[in-house]
Amino acid sequence: MPHIVSIAVSILFDGLAYAMFLFITSVGLSVTMGLMNFVNLAHGAFAMAGGYIVVTLTRSSGVDFVPALIIAAVTVGAASVPFERYLYRRLYKATDLEQVLLTIGLAFMAIAVFTYFYGPIPKSVPLPRWLQGDVNLGFRAFPSYRAFLIVLGAALIAVLWYAFERTNIGAKIRAAVDNRRMAESVGINVDRLFTLTFALGSALAALGGGLAIQLFGLTPSFAVIYLVLFLIVVAVGGLGSLKGTLLAALILGVFDTAGKYLLADAGGFFIYAVTVLVLLVKPAGFYGRE
Amino acid sequence: MDASETQAVLSARSAARARAADYLARRHRFRWPECLPWLLAIAAFFLLPDRMTFGAQVLIMVMFALSLDLILGYAGIVTLGHAAFFGVGAYTVGLLIARLGYTEPISSLCAAAMVAALIGFGTGWFLLRYRGLTLLMLTLATAIMLQETGNLRSDISGGYDGLPGLTIAPLFGIFQYDLYGHVNYLYVLGVLGLIFFFVRRIVYSPFGQALTGIRENVRRMHAIGSPVHRRLVTVYTIAAAIAGVAGALFTQTNAYVTLAVFDFDVSAKVMVMLILGGTGRLYGAFAGAVVYMVLEDYFSKMSPTFWQFGIGLLLVLTVLFAPRGILGLIEGASGRAARRAGP
After folding, report:
1. Which of A23, A262, A287, B293 has most Cβ atoms within 10 angstroms of its Cβ?
2. A56 CB neighbour count, 10 Å cutoff
3. Cβ of B309 and A113 within 8 Å?
4. For A126, which DSSP code?
């Protein structure tokens, strides 16, 4: 295979795997922000908490990686409900600024707590044998873990798409994102709907956090460093749009990977340049409402 | 309408404008309690002579928070990238010294203010059309892109190692910077004083009232024909220049600068200080920066982790229970006391 094609395939493959991580972690944030217009800067902290649960389960309790991911997602999803009920709910009608401050305060506290218990050194996670090494797709071998990410991401997209577009609850969510007052006046309990989507979004964030360990390593500052990426995906995709989040994750994932492959020095620059360009042209993101 | 009528309308308009400015100036005449922070700052110079470098850093953060108060507290622009201008100012001075060998402090400050204002004007012109999450992300991206640019040209900027060991010429060609930072403290205090009275004038001018109007109800300001975008860009440029001066003083005080000045942490920190003190009330920047810096100095030596938890908790508690900051709490308490003592 010619060199240039080989690089292009690598970029596409790694970019796709990265995009899946971005999508899984950001989609919950997008839907909750679309529903309540709530700027949640603590979303990364939920992802980080999920990551540390996976680390603890696999390292100390000997649970396998995949069950550990599921346990982490369920635990964080359940644990996020009281936060929504008792803290976030007070600020739905508050200004952007107050929401930013409350949630960044929560993120700082979470970082401190996890630094206290786990230390600032990056953690890794033991993978099962079938996720190590490469998988051969006939014309070329790919790292199994990234292939797993892509397959998992595709499966989740299918499930979420079905839930969003074809079920009763999905229709209610879409209605509430479109016009909250109208949805309430036809009898949809938007508060309960929001609690549900918030828990689901946090669970997906925790799943993303667990999946990220193998890609980037896990430190407590994960909560803030990657938060910027999730917010970018949400802003570029458009609040509350599944399609937009996916498109944004794909574009940013592939662009960022390409930037890092081709221009290692300017690597970090690309993703922000793309973000600024998109937002200057479409301030509400790809599929957001103006 | 002939020329004399136009003339009459214009002069009536400017008379009305002058009356408004005059009214505001009279209403916000300088009162004696406002001397208090300055007296404290001077007292600190005599009482804590061995903590002057720290003192100068506190004053710099006061100035930085003050610049944020102009755009956040008065105009209501929520930004996550104010460090961009602090960093630009810091690097202007750093590069002047390290790459061009230009060490005169005061003209360097002016240069820093101008470069920061230019970048503030350029980015503000584009960004201030947006609100909410989009604006947050765009301001954040601005700061990060500046940092990445610095990283890209690390041959000029020194990269993440920064520019260490900068030397500065004596102030006015006379006062040599001493090891204990005594000269520097007074220098920073002097610059802060000038900038504070400039900001105070802006805030209590018709322009400042228009900014508050934009913060409170932007639609109504559009409806009465206020040039909203132009006002926002103007105040953003001014705030950028002041943040640039703060950054320049930061470089001069520390005699080094690294790309960490562009960090998200810096933008977050200054916002926390301002919120803690109270937004939109001028002296909030003083109260917040002093309380924050002293607490940080004390607790982060004890345990940085503990301190980070403390800031987080402080933020959550401020938002939930004291949304108007320390000064808001004091005003509330004195208001209650006055009512109780009243008729």
Report:
1. A23
2. 16
3. yes
4. P
Of B130, B152, B320, the CB nearest to A266: B152
**Residue B315 confidence (pLDDT):** 87
Reading phi first (left if > 0) and then psi (alpha if -120 to 50, else beta), residue B279 is in beta
CB atoms within 10 A of CB A140: 13
Asked if B133 and A100 come within 8 Å (Cβ–Cβ), the reply is: no
Q: Does A272 touch chain B (CB under 8 A)?
A: yes
**Nearest-CA distance A225 → chain B (Å):** 9
Q: How far is it, in rounded angstroms, from Cα A38 to Cα A1?
A: 49
Nearest residue of B to residue A38, measured between CA atoms: B133
Task: Provide CB contacts within 8 A for B4, sequence distance 6+.
Answer: none
Among the residue ranges A213-222, B17-26, B175-184, B258-267, the one predicted with the least confidence is B175-184
**pLDDT, tens only, B47-79:** 887 788 888 999 999 999 999 999 998 988 888
Of A131-145, A178-192, B131-145, B254-268, the range with the lowest mean pLDDT is A131-145
Tokens in use for B232? 């926002």
Residue A174 lies in a domain: yes
Q: For the domain that residue A164 is a member of, what is the CATH number?
A: 1.10.3470
The alpha carbon of residue A103 is apart from the nearest alpha carbon of chain B, in Å, by 8
Distance from CA of B305 to the nearest CA of A (A): 5
For residue A223, the enclosing domain spans 3-281
User: According to the 3-state scheme, what is the secondary structure of chain A?
Assistant: CCHHHHHHHHHHHHHHHHHHHHHHHHHHHHHHHHHHCCCCCCHHHHHHHHHHHHHHHHHCCCCCHHHHHHHHHHHHHHHHHHHHHHCHHHHCCCCHHHHHHHHHHHHHHHHHHHHHHHCCCCECCCCCHHHCCEEECCCCEEEHHHHHHHHHHHHHHHHHHHHHHHCHHHHHHHHHHHCHHHHHHCCCCHHHHHHHHHHHHHHHHHHHHHHHHHHHCECCCHHHHHHHHHHHHHHHHCCCCHHHHHHHHHHHHHHHHHHHHHCHHHHHHHHHHHHHHHHHHCCCCCCCCC
| Whole-angstrom distance, CA of residue B159 vs CA of residue A236 | 29
Q: Exposed, middle or buried: residue B131 (CB in 10 Å: 0-12, 13-18, 19+)?
A: middle
H or E stretch including A136? strand A134-136
Is residue A48 over pLDDT 90? yes
Q: Would the CB atoms of A279 and B271 count as touching at under 8 Å? A: no
**B175 — pLDDT class (breaks 50, 70, 90):** low
Query: Does residue A287 form part of some domain?
Result: no
The number of domains in chain A is 1
Instruction: Output the DSSP codes for A149-176.
Output: HHHHHHHHHHHHHHHHHHSHHHHHHHHH
Structural domain boundaries in chain B: 52-264
Tell which residue, A220, A21, A29, A28, has the closest CA to residue A121: A220
DSSP track, B164-218: -S---PPBTTTBPPPTT-HHHHHHHHHHHHHHHHHHHHHHTSHHHHHHHHHHH-H
Report pLDDT digits (tens) over B244-289.
Answer: 999 999 998 888 888 888 888 889 889 989 988 888 888 889 999 9
Residue pLDDT, tens place only, A9-19: 888 899 999 99
Helices (H) and strands (E) in chain B, counts: 15, 0
Residues 6+ apart with CB under 8 A from B3: none
For B324, which residue in chain A has the nearest alpha carbon? A98
